[in-house]
Amino acid sequence: MSGRKQFDVGAALDQAMRVFWQRGYAEASLDALGSATGLGRGSLYGAFGSKDTLFRQCLDRYASIYGAQYEQALTAHSGDPVRAVEAFFDVVLSRIADPSVPVGCLIAQSAAQSPTLKEENSTHVRGLLDRQRQRVRTALADSSADTRTLDELAAFVVAVNQSLAVLSRAGASDAELRSVARLASATVADTLARAASADVAQG
């Protein structure tokens, strides 16, 4: 049929996503993207508009894939925010340990490169981090802690998640990463327990 795309857009996005994930935005050349997707430069521009547009679509695809897993983990333990955070870290660590995908996290890597990204891309990355933080914040809402404490804990959990990705790219072992996640979960539990005790004392 005339005008019909002769390639799988989803598969092309997955391959491009891996290039950005492995190399970062700056080092993901059009030649590398074309080689990974099987598309020439003209076809890449025709399908996605520009490297920046392709990058944002890959960020969204990554966020959709893993965001759904985060959402499922965080909502599977209603009323138990500590277990929800533990389940969240389990998903993160499973992704890091998966040999079929690049090491680290595309969003964490892109956030680290934000100063070199175009403003629109940098803002997009920040928005994805904010979405992740809001997911965690929602899972913490069942506790009796005050709003400020819950906001700080949500930011802390996301910061640890990003740190796990960076450490994994630096060669940290699974045991080391799990130790960090375990201590982070313990910090969340201790903070919420103190908040509950204070609430009882005031009541």
From TrEMBL:
Pfam families: TetR_C_13, TetR_N. Residues 6-66 form the HTH tetR-type domain. It comes from Streptomyces corchorusii. This is TetR family transcriptional regulator. SUPFAM superfamilies: Homeodomain-like, Tetracyclin repressor-like, C-terminal domain. Keywords: DNA-binding, Transcription, Transcription regulation. PROSITE patterns: HTH_TETR_1, HTH_TETR_2. GO terms for molecular function: DNA binding. PANTHER family: HTH-TYPE TRANSCRIPTIONAL REGULATOR YJDC, TRANSCRIPTIONAL REGULATORY PROTEIN. InterPro entries: DNA-bd_HTH_TetR-type_CS (IPR023772), Homeodomain-like_sf (IPR009057), HTH_TetR (IPR001647), Tet_transcr_reg_TetR-rel_C_sf (IPR036271), TetR_C (IPR011075). Residues 29-48 bind DNA. It comes from the Bacteria.
